[in-house]
Automatic annotation (TrEMBL):
This is LacI family transcriptional regulator. Residues 6-60 form the HTH lacI-type domain. PANTHER family: HTH-TYPE TRANSCRIPTIONAL REGULATOR GALS, LACI-RELATED TRANSCRIPTIONAL REPRESSOR. SMART domains: HTH_LACI. The lineage of its organism: Bacteria, Pseudomonadati, Bacteroidota, Chitinophagia, Chitinophagales.
């Protein structure tokens, strides 16, 4: 049986009132007596009446919905970002529609086109690892759709952006390993063109340079899908272990790569940290119970979601065109655990 939502007409018919009277009462209009308003509101609550969002969007020329595109909801970082987004959206009267690219450019294009067809008021997006062509986003932006980038951003579009201090996070991770006495430090990262890859690689290089350690390109391994594919992570670890001069430590630059590296080294019977120390970028809540406990760079994911949503609402609700845009940089935090401590 098809579900039929309660309408204003149903309430009006049951109470013997006009639809316009019921509508005004639900809006709290001063034109309606307190007694009638109380009657309507109590009856609407009894029937669990909710305003029709489609009708409201036609009237307000706004859907009060926000589209979100991330690579994977199961990723600890992105799930926390979404929680931050929703915490602001709910208070401001917006709903969110979440989609996943699974690091696929085609899925990202399909998701953004679908969200636009649903008349979302704005879009929050973190680019997929395959995305180098931004024409699908430029078209929507040029038509007036407010877009805010977070985490994986682009410099090709003028709009608000929110990122973590990726350079500093990688610098601190690398410097920590150097101060522990490690000298041949590898770096596992994602696609070379992604903003987070460039920023974290730069931080890694800067820490080596500041401590007078040479940069060795063979110690940098790129995993295009950032740990989503186990075989890719295993191959990267095997490449490092096959080097004549093996690394004694590594910095893993994403959530899935961090946990994937621990698993890959365990399968190769490499002891952590005795034979290879690890620092990861991860927002996992389980870092303390990994074996060994994982030293990690934690990003302010929840705050990033909040800031991105606030910026998007500013774009949506501004009565004047916004021409000055901001890139907000949020601090990371290094938490030292046993995976990176010299034995």
């Amino acid at each position: 049986m098809k579900y039929e939502a309660i309408t204003i007409k149903d309430i009006a018919k049951d109470l013997g009132l006009s639809t316009s009277t019921v509508s005004r009462a639900l809006r709290g209009s001063y034109e309606i007596s307190a007694e009638t308003r109380k009657l309507v509101l109590e009856y609407a609550e009894k029937l669990n009446y909710r305003p029709n969002p489609i009708a409201l969007s036609l009237k307000e020329k706004r859907s009060r919905s926000i589209g979100i595109v991330v690579c994977e909801i199961a990723n600890n970082f992105f799930s926390q970002v979404i929680n931050g987004i929703e915490s602001v959206a709910y208070k401001k009267g917006y709903y969110v529609i979440i989609s996943q690219s699974h690091e696929s450019f085609e899925r990202e294009v399909a998701n953004t086109q679908y969200l636009a067809s649903r008349s979302v008021d704005g879009l929050l997006i973190s680019l997929s690892t395959e995305t180098t062509d931004l024409s699908h986003l430029n078209k929507l932006h040029d038509k007036g759709l407010p877009i805010v980038f977070f985490d994986r951003i682009t410099e090709e579009m003028s709009t608000h952006k929110v990122i973590a201090n990726n350079f500093n996070g990688a610098y601190q991770a690398t410097e920590h390993l150097i101060r522990e006495g490690f000298r041949r430090i590898a770096h596992l990262t994602i696609s070379p063109h992604l903003s987070i890859t460039k920023e974290r690689l730069a931080g890694y290089k800067a820490a080596l340079a500041d401590h007078h350690l040479p940069y060795d390109e063979s110690l940098v391994q790129y995993c295009k899908y950032g740990g989503l594919i186990d075989a890719e992570t295993m191959e990267a670890v095997d490449n490092l272990l096959a080097l004549k001069e093996k690394p004694d430590a590594l910095v893993a630059a994403s959530d899935k790569l961090s946990t994937g590296c621990l698993a890959a080294l365990a399968r190769r019977k490499v002891r952590v940290p005795e034979e290879m120390a690890i620092v990861g970028f991860t927002n996992s809540l389980l870092t303390d119970i990994f074996h060994p406990a994982l030293t990690s760079v934690r990003q302010p994911a929840f705050e990033m979601g909040q800031v991105a949503m606030e910026m998007l609402i500013d774009l949506i609700e501004s009565k004047h065109p916004i021409t000055k845009f901001e890139t907000r940089v949020l601090n990371t935090e290094l938490s030292v655990r046993s995976s990176s401590l010299k034995v």
